[in-house]
Every structure is written in C-alpha cells, then in structure tokens.
Write a structure and sequence with these properties.
The complex is a heterodimer of chains A (410) and B (337). Chain A is α/β, with parallel strands linked by helices and 410 residues long. Helix content of chain A is 35%, strand content 8%. Chain A has eleven helices and seven strands. With 337 residues, chain B is of the alpha/beta class. Classes of the chains: A alpha/beta (410), B alpha/beta (337).
C-alpha cells in the first residue's frame, strides 16, 4: 500500500451560480490614475506588473485622472459617446429583428461598446482589424453604413456577402475590417501575418487582432504569440475578457490561476491590463500600442476587462448559468453611463442632450432598418440568386462547379 | 536547357518568381539559412535576404495562419511544411480560412498562397514521414491540389501555383526529389539526369493547373495516377507487356476530366493507382468520374491499387507500397476481364 494521498482533479467553478449573490472580488481592479504611462520603447520586463493591475482613467466620480488621461477633446468624447450609443441601439434593433424572424441569429455587444469604438479611434485609415463577432463597434465608429451591416444580417439582395455568412460575420476591407470567421481564434495569426507582410513591404500600416478570453485557450492564440514574439511585427493583440464564453466562466480558459494579460510575458511581449468599460482608458492604451507598432517596436498585448452583459447570442440563455443581476453588480459599470457622467462633469453634456442623442440614434437605426428591410429579410423579399452560391469559391469558376450549377438549374 | 533534379527544379521555380515579383516570400521550418531539410530553398535567403526567405517556428497552424494574413495583405507567400505528415495542426487554417476567405468575404479578401509539402513513402519514414494526404485537400472546396512527378512539371506547376490567386496545396513526392523511382527498392537509385523530363528550361514557364499528361500511350487499359505512381505504373507496364496508357494527372483539383474520358473511351478499361490509403482515397473520386462519364465504354470494372488501409509501416514498407508487382497484377487482371 502506498502512503501517497489519492489524487483529485481540479475543475474551476465560478464564485456564484444562479440564485447567488454576485461576487467580483477576484477581478483585480486598481484605482483610476494609479498606473503610470511608460514611454513606448519601455523594456517589456519593466512593466511586467502591468499585467496584474488595471489601467483606468475615469474614477468613480467621473473625473479623468492620471497619466493615461490623453488629449481627447469634448467633441471627440461626444463622438465616442454617440458611437457607443449607436452601437447599442443597433444591437437592440437587430435583437428585435431576430425575434421577429427577419434573421436567424444575432450577437450583441451590450456592455462592451467602449472597447471596439475607442480602439477604432486610435487606428488610422489603412490599418487592418481582424475582429471576432462582437466588434461591430469597429465598423460603427469607423462610420461604415449601418444599412450595409443590416443587409448582411438579413442576408438580402443587397448583402455584399451574398447570404453566405452567419449574421454579424461582416467583411469590410475598405473600413479595415477583415472577414470575420465563425471559428474562434483563427484570425489571430492572420493579424500577425498581415503585420509581418506590412513590415516585409516597408509599409507604415499596422494590424489589430481580436480574440475573446475563452478562445485564448485555442492553439491559434499561442501560434500568434510565438510568431509575434519572434518577428516583432506591428500588431496589437487584443484580448477581450468579458468573463463568459457562452456558459464557461473565464476560469475554464485559465483565468482563475493567471491573468490573461500575463500570457504575453513568456514571449517578452509588453502587456497591458485595462478597464474595458472606460472609453478614455481604452483609447489611451490603444494609442500607446499603436504608437509602439508604428515606431517598429513590435507587438503589444492588451487584456480589456469587461463584462458580457447580454446573452452570448440569441441562441443562449445566461440565466441558466449565472445570476440574473450580475451585470448590475459589475464593478466597472456601464461604459456609456460612465462617459456620460464624465462629459456632464466637465460641463460638456447634459441629461437633456443625452436623451436627445438617444432619440437620434434610435431614429437613425429605425430608418436604416426600414431601408435594409426594403431589400429583403431572411425569409421575406428579395434575396441573392442561388447561382451566386457557386461564385467566388475560386477566382474563376472551375468546370465541376459550372456543371453543378447547371444541375441545380440556375 | 539544364538538367535538374526535382529539388533543383522546385528551387528554380521559387528563385525565378522571387526575382521577378517582390511579393513572393518563402518561409517554413529550416528553410532560411540552412535551405530546407530537402534543400529546396538552398541559397534563397543569401540571394533575397532574410525578410523574403526565413525560418519559421515549429508551428504549422502558425505557418499557414500567418501565410494567410500575408496573402490577404497582398503578398504571395510560399510556405513549406517540412513533411505532409506535419500539416495536420495547420489543417483548420487551410480548411476554415485559406479555402474560404474569398467566398465568405464576397471576394474582398483571398489567400494567394502556396503550401508546399513533401509527401509519400519509399524512404523508410514510417507513419510520420510517408503519408499521402491529398484526398484531405481535394475534398475541401476552395483549394487546388497539385502533385508533380518530374522536374519539368515541378517547376512549371509551382510557378503556375505561385501565380494562382487561389490557395494551392503543392505536394512533392519526396522519393522523387533526387531521381525517378520505379518502385524496385532493390535496384540502384537512378539520378534525374538520365530522364528526359529532367530537362528544365531557364526562366519562367508554366504547366497549367488542370492539365494531365499522357506518359505512355497505349490501347489496352488506362492507368490514372500521379506522383511516384506514374513511374511505378510505367515500370509495371514495361514488365508485364500490357499495352497500358498512363495518364499523369499532375493536378487533382482542378481535374482534367477530358483527358481521362478520352483515354478510357479509347481503351475501355481503367486502373487507378495511388500511394495513399484506399478507402475514401482520391481513387474513389476518379472511379466515380470514370463510371459517370464512360460507363458505356467500359469493358471491365474500374480497379484500384492503393496503399493498404493501415498506417504506413517501416519494416513492412515494401509490402505496403503499391509497387510494380501489385500494379502489374492489376494490369494483367484488367486485360483478362
């Protein structure tokens, strides 16, 4: 008989389940203004502790404090607020459209709007984002027509993707928005490769890759970091930690034992952990990483700490696995509300103007939806011809596809 | 016109394209300073610099993934997977991404990449250095799959692949790198220099994708094959005296169905030979194509000779390998039916 204890398996479990009292004491939140802003050519080893703290600009009163405040003007901030509000209104309308049967599926970004919209503001025309399905804010902040996005969601005759993609998996090259894959993590090495190509070509453009904390468990995350570490291409590696991957809390991806930002350390890639619900902090950190990339200083990894306020998708019911009131207890609040309070505090906004803007964005979305619906919805009205199904599989249609198209009789 | 081995012809294709097109970059495990474990990229880093020919980490999903990103940017990457047996970590990137970018983005993005990989057996490599995974790629819509059997085709097909705007899987039968192989391991190795198809023109030329070549004309039975099996089939025809017409497909997708149909309608018999395992192998697709297109011309059932449905062994390699004895028996049987 051995005297060794019997082994047991550790399976991480969130602190609370439905019916419990929300508890976010494990998140690890710093005071606003606490983290210094290092020069962009800082040695990564000098900012290792940045992966365990949190860059925040807006404090609990709505004041912007510390070294990461940046130079956004009230006009910039009002535009940022509008981008977030338009994104939320867009999501709300598309959720409704899904319930009305106008599309099969939808993924909203409720509660995470600051990340994509403020990040986009730090990029330049020509830069390329490799987004996941929850970065519609990149397109909206860019100013991409929301009618075009809706036509993709409705898979109608105006859908540039010809009804081939799941709703929300946009592609908009002109807006620096790479075609979204439904396979998680696969686009992360593409961002690194695109950035390597920019460096090989002596270009000035940079790439921005996106992944959720759940998908950092994929091998592709590791692959991307290896290549980013080896060749030091101009890429920003964004990890959106919204706490939940469908029903799996971030501990199942390894977040119980370590911070996602810290994964960059083994690759000597500088890493920041940032309040993702703080528009000013997201912009400032994105700009820092973009400046590093443009100065040929290589990749930066940023963990954006946020909370997925809605269901994963229209096919998900989060009340089955987490407390219903968890978002209300989320310590980093609502990004729209926080920027609104800040703008009011600096005398650049008011409740009345906010209400007015809310009405404006809702009207804009409604009008766009009417226009998009006039081109058809999933089961109603005009849709792409079945003949287009055989196109663009290859640049030129090969004989076997021509024969199959003929068999279909189109 | 120079005499070249298949290794030299493949290198010459990349050299030629790198010289005339700055967008062509070459990378993979050990391909930079060292020039590749099979020497296919030897000298390219010295000639074109480290940013156009470089070593990659041992990470096939990363190699394919960054190649896709480079292709989407506008470069023409040629990525080497050291052995086809190692490609599986990169398979998701090939299937879900490289093959699908153009379609899913409505033509906005595409991956004009070539993924080169040595395949096939005959070198005592066992299951991790001998596989022929072509059917895993021909089954995927959006990919082209090419497999040369000689130096002339290797250069022309590789240049055509690099110039192609779709992702191309370029399989290189490693047993043919330094000489043709009839499938008799006991016979002395023959260098390419004595083979007419080792005459390789200087500079750019292409062998178009989707065009088969008749390696041996005959009236008795059509043999559909590619890669190493082209040479094995030629040996089997010589040794049995069967009047076989040997078609080297060269490109599996796109497939030259006209050449297949013309030959089978002439001979009325068809034997399919490949080194890959039998079940769901590319031969199954060929058999279906022949049956659909040439049924009334057939005088005998379509036969297949292929690798057994086992992993590729080491010590039993020559029992596994579909050599000239097995191919010869199948030729004779086809003629007797």
């Amino acid at each position: 008989m051995t005297s060794a204890p019997r082994l047991s398996l550790h399976v991480p479990e969130p602190t609370v389940r439905p019916g419990g009292k929300p508890d976010f004491s494990h998140v690890g939140i710093a005071e606003a203004g606490e983290v210094p802003r290092p020069p962009i050519d800082v040695n990564p080893s000098e900012i290792r502790d940045f992966a365990y703290t949190m860059i925040r600009v807006l404090d609990d009163n709505g004041d912007a404090v510390g070294a990461w405040v940046g130079a956004l003007t009230p006009d910039d901030l009002r535009k940022g607020l509008r981008d977030m509000m338009l994104t939320r209104a867009f999501d709300a309308r598309m959720l409704l459209s899904q319930r009305q049967g106008k599309t099969s599926f939808y993924i909203q970004s409720l509660g995470e709007e600051a990340i994509a919209t403020a990040h986009r503001k730090a990029l330049k025309p020509g830069d390329m984002c490799f987004p996941t399905y929850r970065q519609q804010g990149l397109l909206i902040a860019y100013g991409w027509p929301i009618v075009d996005m809706m036509c993709q969601i409705f898979a109608n005759e105006q859908d540039r993707l010809k009804g081939r993609q799941l709703p929300g998996l946009y592609s908009a090259k002109e807006a620096g928005f790479f075609t979204v894959s439904g396979n998680l993590g696969t686009q992360y090495p593409h961002a690194v490769g695109w950035a390597m190509a920019s460096a090989i070509s002596g270009d000035t453009r940079i790439a921005s890759g996106w992944i959720g904390e759940g998908a950092t468990a994929e091998s592709d995350f590791h692959s991307a970091l290896v290549f980013a570490s080896v060749y030091r291409p101009p890429v920003i590696l964004n990890v959106v930690n919204n706490q939940w991957a469908i029903s799996s809390y971030q501990g199942i991806a390894g977040g119980e034992s370590a911070k996602f930002a810290a994964r960059a350390h083994g690759f000597a890639i500088p890493s920041l952990r940032v309040d993702g619900n703080d528009y000013l902090a997201v912009y400032a950190a994105s700009l820092w990483a973009a400046e590093r990339a443009r100065a040929n200083l290589g990749p930066t990894l940023i963990e954006w700490v946020t909370y997925r306020a809605g269901a994963h998708s229209t096919s998900d019911d989060p009340s089955k696995y987490r407390p219903k009131d968890e978002w209300a207890a989320w310590p980093l609040g609502d990004p729209i509300e926080r920027l609104k309070i800040h703008l009011i505090r600096i005398g650049a906004w008011s409740e009345e103007r906010h209400k007015q803007m809310q009405a404006e964005v809702e009207a804009e979305v409604l009008e766009a939806a009417k226009e998009a619906e006039s081109h058809g919805t999933l089961h109603d009205g005009p849709k792409p011809s079945a003949a287009t199904m055989f196109e663009q599989v290859y640049k030129d249609m090969p004989r076997h596809l021509r024969e199959q198209r003929q068999q279909l009789g189109v | 016109m120079a005499r070249m081995s298949m290794v030299e012809a493949i290198r010459d294709a990349m050299d030629c394209k790198m010289a005339e097109d700055e967008r062509v970059v070459v990378f993979g495990e050990d391909v930079g300073y060292f020039g590749g474990v099979f020497r296919c990229t030897d000298g390219l880093q010295r000639k074109y610099g480290k940013s156009r020919c470089f070593d990659a980490p041992i990470n096939e999903s990363g190699i394919v993934g960054v190649a896709i990103g480079m292709g989407a940017y506008g470069l023409r990457p040629v990525a080497e997977i050291q052995f086809a047996d190692y490609v599986y970590p990169g398979y998701d990137q090939i299937v879900s991404e490289a093959a699908r970018l153009r379609y899913r983005s409505g033509g906005e993005f595409f991956a004009p990449i070539v993924i080169r990989m040595p395949c096939g057996g005959g070198i005592y490599g066992g299951q991790t250095h001998s596989q022929s995974p072509e059917a895993l790629f021909t089954h995927v819509s959006g990919l082209k799959t090419v497999i040369p059997s000689n130096p002339y085709d290797a250069k022309g097909l590789l240049i055509a692949s690099i110039e192609d705007d779709d992702p191309v899987i370029f399989l290189e039968p490693k047993r043919l790198y330094n000489g043709p192989f009839s499938g008799h391991p006991d016979q002395p190795a023959v260098p390419w220099a004595k083979h007419p198809l080792s005459e390789v023109p200087a500079g750019r030329y292409i062998v178009p994708l989707g065009k088969a070549a008749v390696r041996r004309e005959g009236k008795g039975v059509t043999v559909l094959c590619y890669g190493t099996m082209t040479h094995v089939a030629e040996a089997a025809a010589e040794e049995t005296g069967v009047d076989a017409e040997i078609i080297d497909l060269r490109s599996l997708l796109p497939l030259d169905v006209d050449a297949i149909q013309a030959s089978v309608e002439k001979t009325g018999r068809c034997l399919i030979v490949h080194e890959a395992t039998l079940t769901s192998g590319f031969g199954a697709e060929l058999a279906a194509q022949v049956t659909e297109r040439c049924f009334y011309a057939l005088e005998a059932p379509v036969e297949r000779v292929a690798g057994w449905d086992t992993p590729y062994p080491v010590s039993e390699e020559w029992d596994y390998f579909p050599g000239p004895a097995r191919v010869g028996r199948a030729l004779v049987k086809a003629m007797e039916t």
